[in-house]
Amino acid sequence: MAAAGLQLRTLRRLCRVLLFLSQFYILSGGGSLNLEQSQPLAQSIKDPGPTRTFTVVPRAAESTDIPPYVMKCPSNGLCSRLPADCVECKTNFSCVYGKPATFDCTVKPSVTCVDQDFRSQKNFIMNMTCRFCWQLPESDYECSNSTSCMTVSCPRQRYTANCTVRDHVHCLGNRTFPKMLYCNWTGGYKWSTALALSITLGGFGADRFYLGQWREGLGKLFSFGGLGIWTLIDVLLIGVGYVGPADGSLYI
Prior knowledge:
Blueprint: H1 2-46, E1 77-78, E2 87-89, E3 100-107, E4 113-114, E5 123-129, E6 141-143, E7 158-165, E8 176-182, H2 191-201, H3 206-210, H4 214-222, H5 224-227, H6 229-239
Parallel strand pairs: 1-4
Antiparallel strand pairs: 2-3, 3-5, 6-7, 7-8
Protein name: TM2 domain-containing protein 3
Keywords: Glycoprotein, Membrane, Signal, Transmembrane, Transmembrane helix
Membrane topology: Multi-pass membrane protein
């Protein structure tokens, strides 16, 4: 029992000595080093510093669209034979109306053509007649039709049409222009059929019914062709083309 008590007292003294040494180490500066080392770390955590923002700019997609005029331009053909939509020409202000003139032209982008020696060419000289597009003959442009005007009338009616020059024709100014044209549309009525009905069955109003004039047709039917007088008059009027379809169209 005495030996055990002695060992216990020795262990307590050893623990006190270790505790004293650890406190002395901390007070002598060992702990301050750790404290100084921990302060920058704590500061770095609290103050992360200025942040950098990176903006990702999307790269512009390369355009692969083909211009619509390219579909009209033959590849590797003669530059002088390209359609007007494929070239750009400078106006020659010294040209005389109706006379041949030369114009300096440039091929549009995405269009390839060659000269007489089959060499690639961008700038060339084109020969054409000096005149504006609206001065071209009717065979060189196409115009819109109107079905809302009367073709059989006195005087003849006109309408405003939008005309476009054909691709192979070269001219000065705008290639699309308005123009006043006579009404010339047709609804499918034949002049020969109307005249035949007027001669054979005109007394029953068959000619008027065929032309879509049902009121006059009923009048001729119930009056027996106006006792023949109305029938003879209609034969003459249809024969000279004065009486036409009710919708105002032309005969075929």
